[in-house]
Specification:
Helix content: over 70%
Order of helices and strands: HHHHHHHHH
Distance between the termini: 26 Å
Number of domains: 2
Mean pLDDT: 82
CATH superfamily of the largest domain: RNA polymerase sigma factor, region 2, helix turn helix motif
CATH class of the largest domain: Mainly Alpha
Strand content: under 5%
Low-confidence stretches: 106-114
Structural class: mainly alpha
């Protein structure tokens, strides 16, 4: 990305404030999207994004360029989201009215119809690593090796996650009359 190159040049020149001013609008949507893909809660994802940008601000002067800027940001976001999810899972109880309402809403959700909306509903239902690989590959148009670096796993493992996700999506869409591209 040309924007990434400009941001990296600003970091290397010691102009972290200007780099950060460009980084936030360039990555805001992607950070929130990744956080949401892990947390499954829009408000929590937006809150986490704020925390991630604070972490990025503090860590920006230490960015050494060993990984691409996007991979570095993705890793920080993913780790923060997983930590938040672990914390949240410890504190979630079905006796909490909000949690109970969410469970009931998901159980009462109507069966999706064919088309893109159905596809993305099925993507949301995939296991976490498969879902992240699919989103990075198809929505963010990342290369498999870049996804592997972002997710901290071997390339062949990412390929396996993508293969299994495609098979699962094809089967799910076949039952509702949709097609997988």
């Amino acid at each position: 990305m040309p924007a990434d190159e400009a941001i990296v040049q600003l970091i290397q020149a010691g102009r972290a404030e200007q780099a950060f001013e460009r980084l936030v609008p360039a990555y805001r949507r992607r950070v929130i999207g990744l956080a949401y893909s892990v947390l499954r809660d829009r408000a929590a994802a937006e809150d986490l994004a704020q925390e991630v940008f604070v972490k990025l601000w503090r860590a920006l002067p230490r960015y050494d360029g060993r990984a691409t800027l996007s991979t570095w940001i993705y890793a920080i976001t993913r780790n923060a989201a997983i930590s938040a999810l672990r914390t949240r899972r410890r504190s979630v109880s079905l006796s909490d009215p909000a949690v109970l309402a969410e469970v009931e809403n998901r159980e009462a959700a109507p069966e999706p119809g064919p088309g893109d909306a159905a596809l993305w509903r099925h993507v949301e239902a995939l296991p976490e690593k498969q879902r992240q690989a699919v989103i990075l590959y198809y929505q963010d148009e990342r290369a498999v090796d870049e996804i592997a670096a972002m997710m901290g796993m071997p390339v062949n493992t990412v390929k396996t996650h993508l293969h299994r996700a495609r098979a699962s999506l094809a089967a799910a869409l076949a039952t509702v009359g949709g097609e997988f591209p």
